[in-house]
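Good morning C.,

I know you're traveling, so I'll keep this short. The sequence:
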Amino acid sequence: VTPPTNGQPDKLPVLIPLKVGLLGPDGQDLPLHLEGKGSVGSSTVLRCDAEHNSFTFTDVEVEPVPSLLRGFSAPVKLQVTGQSDDHLRLMFAHDSDPFNRWEAGQRLYMKLLLQLYQAAAGAAASVPLAERCAAAGGVPGELVAAFKAVLEDAELDGSFKAMAMRLPSMAEIVDRIDEADPVLVWQVRQYVYQQLAQQLRPELEGAIKANDVPPGTPYEFNAQQCARRHLRNMSASVLGSLEAPDVQEQLLRRFREATNMTDRMAALTVLCDTDTPGREQALQAGVCSAGCMCAVAAFWLGV
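The tokens, ready to paste straight into the viewer:
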């Protein structure tokens, strides 16, 4: 129901096209049979044009997981009664709809980040952050498995994988917390990345290797190369949270050998999030290379 506004106290229902699908226990789309229409494929659009609408699917042989608002079919905020973390993890790992797959991951990330933040904020500051977060359950293995499924899905575009791997931004998290401590938010966010990196380091390194190019390769601007850059830089970003000397050395090398600003700034951004010697070396090199390019210098100052 649309809330009343000035001069319009009574709002009539508006048409909401709700694209839906049903997932089986294995994450695959189930065939849909809508009462009154018969078979409608594996995804269909329901017309919601009244305050209350009811739709019945028949011949559903297993308990399904609803995949609603596929393709962001309407500009609405959707609350799904009874949707559990298990449902979200199944969608994140397997949903055939890219929007819902990404959205499921973002909801899981945000719920975990808020849970860990509250636990860390409520514990004694003298206790190391990792211990405070671990006491609250840390990063669930099921989420790590879903993250891995996205990373290793050969059918997914590299740019989509990178976006699905990215945690909600600092601004998004702070917006959900009353009187948030930005430093603690950043620390909790880094903790989650560190846990993912520790448990999935071989897979992340494999993604970087599979999408890497030899040093000095000329820059190409096309969808395929953009996707490869996006995925390898996001994988390197997650690994960079470990602050391991060998990882920092690789990031510094990538920064120095980059033939384009996308790769160069990606490596610099990760290095600046660490307290390592590589950060100062990269920042000094950044100053020297910026010269009179105002746009580049502004980007460097914003890191």
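Safe travels,
E.
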